[in-house]
Design a protein that fits this description.
The chain is an alpha+beta fold and 235 residues long. The chain has helices spanning 2-21, 45-49, 216-229, and strands at residues 25-35, 53-69, 88-91, 93-94, 97-98, 100-109, 111-120, 137-143, 146-152, 157-168, 172-180, 205-207, 231-233. The strands form three sheets. Strands 2, 3, 7, 8, 9, 10 and 12 form a seven-stranded mixed sheet that branches. Strands 6-1-11-13 form a four-stranded mixed sheet, with helices on one face. Strands 4-5 form a two-stranded antiparallel ribbon. The longest helix has 20 residues, at 2-21.
Amino acid sequence: MKHTFLMALVMALFMVGCSKDDDGHSSIRLKVSTTDNTTSSRSNTIGKRNENVVFTDFRISIRDVVFKNDDDPNSNLDTDEIQFRGPYQIDLLDGGNALSQTIGDAVVPDGRYKELRFKFHKDEDLPATDNLYDRSIYMEGTIGDQPFVFWHDTSENLDVGRSTGVDVVGGTVNFTVTFNTSQFLSALKEIDLTQATDGNGNGIIEIFPNDQDGNQNIAKDLKDNIKATADLINQ
């Protein structure tokens, strides 16, 4: 009887394992990274002025990642399910060097995926000393010899995708959201960061939605540019 029970248990486990492999589900491994694909934008006057701008630290806080299918009305893929709830604090630059961070693997129905959506999320549960406390985007750098700090507390959605879609069938597929740092000052609007001022004279150029240095308009444009540089690749 013991042998019979053990054999039945082994067979049951084998069948469960097979069913997981054949149930029409695969997985997406989500990564977030930065890249520096320099464009010709620096050939213009504003671009030349920004040549002394250096980004040394770039972080974002996100939540509620959703993978969206090809919008086929006959598809049975659930595009409303949140695969990664978060929040996630993601460090994307270290001393100016690009970083990549893996969020995790999400099991999804087999299919063609064209888009993912996540929400910038300001996390109030972090220690107040954390640079991302109550902020969703944070950046440090220098403009010439003067340090600057930029942050924003936007809670907007960001959609990134590929028009051709990516087939996710029979395994794990890498999805990487990349932010192109070389376009932070030019993606939607040309920003001359050398025009940012240290209005309160504390030695740091502060660029916030409510800063006291007079750089609020730059803060909005920089936030919009950062969002516009996001792209989705699979590799």
